Each structure stands twice: as structure tokens, then as C-alpha cells.
């Protein structure tokens, strides 16, 4: 007569085997769920990347031509990020009060006296208008030249060895 059961194992071995098998099954199920979640996140990231590249949002029923999917048309729908703060805000300057500061004016004008575009100055639209008004005002007063940089600021280019006496 065998001890422990029909298959020759002790009575506790069968339950230990079932517990071990259940643990393995739970671990495999957990791994499968994690893998599904990772795949879902990867697919969502790819989808979001495509949506980011295509700024126009289409709704069911929209009629479009292949030209509407071209990069040139998509650029028309792209949102422009508005600058929240710029150098004028950070420094707390009032451009209309800084009209006597020639070095500041030179930063916002070209060497030929033209006002630089906001893409070059990186100013918010409201501050770009204030700076442009300041430049037009000082040029209108005749304090700043309209066709070249201020002579005090370009003196060092013509007379590099001469030190400014103070």
C-alpha cells in the first residue's frame, strides 16, 4: 500500500503544486496585462505624434481634396504660440520713456535705421508696437538718424585706438 495518495505523493505536495501553478498563472496574466498596456501606450503615442503633425482637426462629414492634406495647407492651420513675456516685461521697461537710450534703440533697429521685425526682436506684439513708436518718435525728433546707426555708437569702428575721454 502506498503512502500519501494514488500518485505516490504526500498529501501536501498536491496542494503546493496547485498553489505554485496558480502563482505562475497570476504572474503570466499580470505580465500579459502589462504588455497590453504598454502596447496601448505605444499606439497612443504614435497616434498623438501623427495628430501633432496634422494640426487641422477633421470631423466626420468634412469634404476635402488631396491638396488640403499638403504641408502648405497644414501650416495654415498650425497654432502659433503667443509669447507670454519678453525682455521688455522682464526688465520692466517702458519703451516710450527710453527714447534717449541709444544703445537700446540700436538693438531694435538695423544698421540702416529701419525697425527690426518682431521675429528678430522676439517681442510680444504690444511691446513691439511700443518700441516701434519710440523709434519713430526719436527719429522724428531728429535725435537718432534714420539712415544709419548713431554716431556715438559707431565711433569705435572708425577710431578704434582713441579712448573716450570722460
Fold and architecture overview:
By secondary structure, the chain is mainly alpha-helical. The protein has two domains: 13-55 and 68-75; 87-158, Ribosomal protein S18 (30s Ribosomal Protein S18). The protein is 54% helix and 0% strand. It contains seven helices and no strands. The longest helix has 43 residues, at 11-53. The protein is elongated, with a radius of gyration of 36 Å. The mean pLDDT is 84.
Task: Summarize the structure in short.
By secondary structure, the chain is mostly helical.
Radius of gyration: 36 Å
CATH class of the largest domain: Few Secondary Structures
Tally of separate domains: 2
Looking at this structure, what is the CATH superfamily of the largest domain? Answer: Ribosomal protein S18
Low-pLDDT windows of residues: none
Distance linking N and C termini: 118 Å
Q: How many runs of DSSP E, i.e. beta strands?
A: 0
Overall pLDDT confidence: 84
Largest β sheet strand count, sense and barrel closure: none
Q: Which descriptor suits the 3D outline?
A: elongated
Residue share in helices? Answer: 40-55%
Task: Outline the fold blueprint.
Layout: H1 11-53, H2 71-77, H3 87-91, H4 102-107, H5 118-121, H6 125-141, H7 151-158
Q: Which properties best describe this structure?
A:
166 residues; mainly alpha; 30s Ribosomal Protein S18; 2 domains; 7 helices; elongated
Amino acid at each position: 500500500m502506498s503512502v500519501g495518495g494514488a500518485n505516490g505523493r504526500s498529501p501536501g505536495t498536491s496542494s503546493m503544486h496547485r498553489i505554485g501553478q496558480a502563482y505562475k498563472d497570476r504572474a503570466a496574466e499580470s505580465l500579459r496585462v502589462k504588455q497590453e498596456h504598454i502596447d496601448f501606450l505605444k499606439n497612443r503615442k504614435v497616434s498623438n505624434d501623427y495628430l501633432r503633425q496634422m494640426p487641422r482637426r477633421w470631423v466626420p462629414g468634412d469634404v476635402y481634396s488631396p491638396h488640403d492634406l499638403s504641408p502648405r495647407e497644414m501650416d495654415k492651420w498650425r497654432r502659433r504660440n503667443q509669447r507670454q513675456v519678453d525682455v521688455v516685461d522682464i526688465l520692466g521697461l517702458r519703451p516710450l520713456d527710453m527714447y534717449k537710450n541709444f544703445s537700446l534703440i540700436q538693438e531694435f533697429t538695423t544698421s540702416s535705421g529701419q525697425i527690426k521685425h518682431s521675429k528678430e526682436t522676439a517681442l510680444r506684439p504690444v511691446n513691439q508696437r511700443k518700441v516701434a513708436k519710440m523709434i519713430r518718435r526719436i527719429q522724428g525728433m531728429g535725435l537718432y538718424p534714420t539712415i544709419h546707426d548713431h554716431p556715438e555708437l559707431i565711433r569705435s569702428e572708425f577710431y578704434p585706438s582713441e579712448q573716450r575721454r570722460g
